[in-house]
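Table S4 entry, Phosphoenolpyruvate carboxylase.
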Amino acid sequence: LARRNEFEAYRQKCTYIHARLLATLRHTESYEPTWSIDGVARVPDERDWYLGAAELLADLRLMDASLRANAGAAMADGDLHDLIRLVEVFGLHMATLDIRQHSDRHTAALHEIFATAGVCNNYDELSEAERTALLSRELAGRRPLIPPHLPFGAETNETVQTFRTIRALLEQLNPDTIHTYIISMTRGPSDVLAVLLLAREAGLYDPSNGTSRLDIVPLCETRSDLQHAPDIFTQLLQTPAYQTHLDCRGNRQEIMLGYSDSNKDSGFVAANWALYVAQRDLTAVAEQHGVKLRLFHGRGGAIGRGGGATNHAILAQPPGTVRGQLRLTEQGEVIFDRYGISGIAVRHLEQLLHALLLSTFVPPSASDRTEWCDALTELADESAAAYRSLVYDDPRFLQYFQEATPIREIVRLNIGSRPASRKTSPRIEDLRAIP
């Protein structure tokens, strides 16, 4: 490259960046995660590809600074400025990947790991308090639990390999590809501490050097889990190991709220009131402990799955819970409706930003009134009881549901990202809210 365009330094720099981007693409397309007995193989300092957007931005900003220092501000403010902004927003990956796994898989994996290591032979039979105490002790120590070779069953090996693969991707491919690990059906603090321990075993969490590579996000899905979410959050914040993890992550905590499963579990009224109260109380817990909380709304597309007009939903959040940021899911069924036409997509994003700004900066017109909250609590209890008496307690409902809806046909269609049921049983409890 040095002999090409010998007297055109900026063209040479652009040629160099282009060559490294092509090498990065080749590396990405041919990459396979590697894990040896010593852990993740270290990436060599001398390489021709970019390890993440930070290295590309360093090259682009060097050009920007040079142009501005040599009467080239007009050029720096043109395409180069736009390119820098694109890299800042999209990186080399466009969008980060969330990893999501059911809490039962972590429990089963740790049961086998603890039994093999001689720590505990009945982890899956312990109470929530006993599990939390055991996990806290293990996180406070430095004893490794998982050997480099995996002597466990297939499911446990897969769980461990998931964490090892995450580390390999972050260190060998791109440190921006994965930020979040979501725990489905979080029922207690032990479900969160279990993931932190598995992350430590893979080298993703190392309190000795202040490193934690993942945001651990509990997902509260049922009405009961939503009602217990503030207590779970409080217990986590009182656990030294988890507080250390939060310190490593900038004292930020994200919590995901399940709309679809809470609707399936208790009906529309009870689910929405449980979601409202959970957001209000989680925000109060975060304020009390000085933690920056972001709520992740797992909303469906259809109204029956917690969907509807997103801007209206943002404006309906409890006062003081938005604070300039939120995450939400966009289901496949509404992607084209909202983003298929550029004009509609821009308008939809404008409405979201408008609602976000209003919720953040405009004082609420009224606070929660005690009598209103009491009335809604009673309505929620009565409606949930009526809903569950029909859907879960009436033995005839399952037969009616299977005969009146095309659920059997939907189950056979290979069009979803996961099976229609969490287990092989046909029970309503095991059927996903989004088959």
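Residues 97-382 form a domain with the TIM Barrel fold (CATH 3.20.20).
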